[in-house]
Amino acid sequence: MPYYRSVGEIPRKRHTQFRDPDGRLYAEELMGVEGFSSDSALLYHRHLPTAIVDAVAVPDAEAGERATVANHPLKPRHFRTPDLKWESPADVDAVQGRRLLFGNGDVAICYVAATTASPLYRNAAGDELLYVQGGSGVVETVYGALPVGDGDYVVIPTSCTYRVVPEGDDPLRLLVLEARGHIGPPRRYLAAKGQFLEHSPYCERDQRGPTTPMLADGTDVDVYVRHQAGVTRYTYAHHPFDVVGWDGCLYPWAFNIRDFEPITGRVHQPPPVHQTFEGPNFVVCSFCPRKVDYHPLAVPVPYNHANVDSDELMFYVGGNYEARKGSGIGLGSLSLHPSGFTHGPQPGAVEAALGVDYFDETAVMVDTFRPLALGEAASACEDPRYAWSWSRRGPDR
Ligand SMILES: [Fe+2]
Known about the structure:
By secondary structure, the chain is mainly beta. It has helices spanning 60-63, 349-353, 376-380, and strands spanning 5-8, 27-32, 40-45, 52-58, 77-80, 99-103, 107-114, 120-123, 128-134, 136-141, 144-149, 152-156, 162-167, 172-179, 219-227, 230-238, 243-248, 253-256, 275-279, 282-287, 290-291, 311-319, 333-337, 358-359, 361-368, 373-374, 382-383. Helices cover 4% and strands 38% of the residues.
């Protein structure tokens, strides 16, 4: 629920005649969530946003492998995204090249190292959240463009047509969350009318939205639409980036993890202080470089914990993660600590952290309230020894 925004040209009154310089009417489109009962935007198109000339079901093989296997036997797991390889690394895009790491009925969690521009795309089944682990690029949307780089979260509303264009020599590395619903700031950070409250670790000044219209010409333009039954490729009579102006409270926005202001305490603070977003049956938290617990006898790393009602996925993106020292976890690693398994710091991490007053660590955590199953990409980059890293011996040694 970002704030009201107005970009480009719009008529003074909604639902009134609005014409181009040649006298032709623009086509008004309402993009609204929850029927007509929640946030929305009004967009003004040069062409009819309804004019499709073809609709084709994309074969599953082309749409990406989405099968999963249960985390069974139930284990804590470690995955190294730097080990993920693509057949043609110079020709990977952020839509068709994304690979499924984990999924359940609420969210699919994918990863991609994108090197080339994606096709036009939208997700009709829910919002998407991109986290930029590295590289830079532009997320071009029907609302305008968002330049993005290292540490950016990008919230893309359901049914927002967009494409991702990497820039520079390095791949644009993205963790992609495809939700089956809407993603936004936690409700408890917001006043009744939606303003961020004083205790929120970020606020409106940290959010970035499109600033100018995104206009492109073209006819017979393909758009890939992910929906609950699969992926359909529409061909539009005219390029969808034809919006001369829009206004409202529903649009894509970005927020950099470095703008998240950590909440600290004399003793260890629980993960909800790091919460950044909430989605349907999941939350996203940002662990940022911070002063740590300053009670004279504080234990700065977490206590062992049984996350009874959630699977806890941690993506390690910067610095050194003190509690995981000795586990094999490095930058680009993902740990999965499922419900039913008590997890905590690796042996020696508590003692090593005593007296430390600053942690240089950055991690993105996704806690899901239903178990995560493992996708193709998880199997391709798993470190099978992790489950035994607390005892330092496993069944074979
Ligand atoms: Fe944990």
